[in-house]
Specification:
single chain, 457 residues, alpha/beta, Rossmann fold, 2 domains, 19 helices, binds 5-phosphoarabinonic acid
Length: 457
């Protein structure tokens, strides 16, 4: 099968003045070899996942039940939602939910990853609780947003006099947490989040697989793509390992002050992969301490962009602003659908040049234009090329970027798997919302709040 390809040409000199030299890669060959071998030894959970049948098989077992609903609503946030959204957008028709059932064939999919009441209400307006499955996804079972939405959904199901165990499926830690406890007490079906795989690395676990399967995505092929990529990225030779090569490129540029990584998709269907990547890169690599406990305040800021839309929003900055960005384009060679621009106004040169071309040609020509301009302005850029969008290629992409992130974490000498920086905000929320055990902390937060200097207009 034709997989994804990486084009790294435009991060190098002479394509880019002051670009990387091959020598810089050679100088790091041994370092990369050590990092890749270390990762193989450590075996972070996601690395062997595609070769493990147990999680995918349990999801496949639920296929008939899950697909018997009219709607499947995912309740989760962060790593428990972003992968689902990326898979749905890439592998289903855009606006899948509004397609007639004869075409869609499978349940509508909604992903509630916020607690904005306008958003939640707008989704609740669209579902019939009697024919809805709520997939509550929370590895910890403590996340306030997922739990609040669970309570709302539960209230609705109980309000209709329906049996919760017929309308809920929990995806959570196999042993720990309140969801596990409730499930055991009430006979609610569950799926396991592997304990050794963190939220943002979990899209290929039941976290992302269930809603994918529900909407008819071929999750076996997703795994096949991940497997194929795994074989490539465990190669310690940096010149043959696209994920390690890409990590090294980002690392070397980061050392030169390029502290922003832009992922710009020239495909609406691939756009949410950039959203997924944004969390993976930000939460994994943005760290205060290194592995020795020294304060480093490190990390490269990920930005997502959509071509051609953001050519009219962001590209001015990318071309002429500070030299601080490495741009990754996502290019799609073969679009699923195509539209030909009609030949009208043949006497008006401002319009006639467009006539007769496919829209995909226009979009990919715009990508070429942006790429050319970045090169002319000596801005490093690279491309991930998708021959087409299918589960195999998406599985490859996901796996490559998970591994790339782990390599980058090792190069930066930080722990890419934790997220201590989000804990404080969570604790404040618990305290102010009146969670038991946080009373003292609440007083502290309230005191600080009243003593704070106020500048309001
Ligand atoms: O990557 C992570 O670990 C986080 O983004 C989590 O996925 C997110 O905080 C949700 O956590 P949980 O699944 O425990 O509700």
């Amino acid at each position: 099968m034709n997989g994804i390809k990486f084009d790294f040409s435009n991060v190098f000199y002479p394509n880019i003045e002051k670009g990387l030299t091959e020598e810089e890669i050679y100088n790091n060959e041994e370092k990369i070899k050590d990092v890749v071998n270390k990762l193989i030894d450590e075996n972070p959970g996601f690395l062997s996942l595609p070769f493990t049948r147990v999680y995918i098989d349990r999801v496949l077992d639920l296929k008939n039940w899950v697909q018997s609903f009219e709607s499947v609503v995912v309740l989760g946030i962060g790593g428990s939602a972003l992968g689902n959204q990326a898979l749905q957008t890439a592998l289903n028709p855009l606006h899948y939910n509004v397609l007639p059932i004869e075409i869609r064939k499978n349940p509508k999919i909604f992903i509630l990853d916020n607690v904005d009441p306008d958003f939640i209400a707008s989704v609740l307006d669209q579902i019939d609780p009697k024919t809805t499955l709520f997939n509550v996804i929370s590895k910890s079972g403590t996340t306030a947003e997922a739990m609040a939405n669970y309570l709302i959904a539960r209230g609705i199901i109980e309000g209709y006099g329906l049996k919760p165990k017929n309308h809920f499926l929990f995806t959570t830690d196999p042993q720990k947490g309140i969801l596990r406890k409730i499930a055991e007490e009430e006979g609610i079906r569950t799926l396991d989040v592997p304990p050794h795989i963190g939220g943002r690395f979990s899209v290929l676990t039941p976290v992302g697989l269930l809603s994918a399967l529900a909407s008819g995505i071929d999750i076996i092929d997703l795994y096949n793509g991940a497997k194929e990529m795994q074989k490539k990225v465990i190669n310690p030779n940096v010149w043959e390992n696209p994920a390690a090569f890409n990590a090294l490129i980002h690392y070397l540029y980061y050392q030169k002050g390029f502290n922003i990584s832009v992922m710009m998709s020239y495909s609406n269907k691939l756009f949410l992969l950039a959203d997924w990547y944004r969390q993976l890169w930000a939460e994994s690599l943005g760290k205060k301490f290194n592995l020795k406990g020294e304060t480093v305040n490190i990390g490269q800021t990920p930005i997502k962009a959509l071509g051609a839309t953001d050519q009219h929003s962001q590209v001015q900055l990318y071309n002429e602003g500070p030299y601080d960005k490495v741009v990754t384009f996502l290019q799609l060679e073969k679009f699923e659908r195509n539209i030909k621009i009609p030949k009208l106004y043949e006497n008006l040169p401002e319009l006639s040049y467009l006539g007769g071309h496919e829209l995909s040609t226009l979009l990919n020509t715009e990508l070429e234009g942006t790429e050319y301009a970045l090169i002319e302005n000596n801005r490093p850029n690279l491309k991930v090329i998708f021959p087409e969008i299918n589960p195999f290629n998406i599985g490859q992409f996901i796996f490559a970027y998970e591994f790339q992130t782990a390599v980058m974490g090792n190069l930066l000498e930080i722990n890419p798997y934790d997220q201590p920086g989000v804990e404080l905000g969570k604790k404040v929320t618990y305290a102010l919302m009146g969670r038991k055990g946080f009373e003292e902390f609440r007083t502290e937060v309230e005191n600080k709040r009243t003593n704070k200097k106020q500048v309001m207009m």
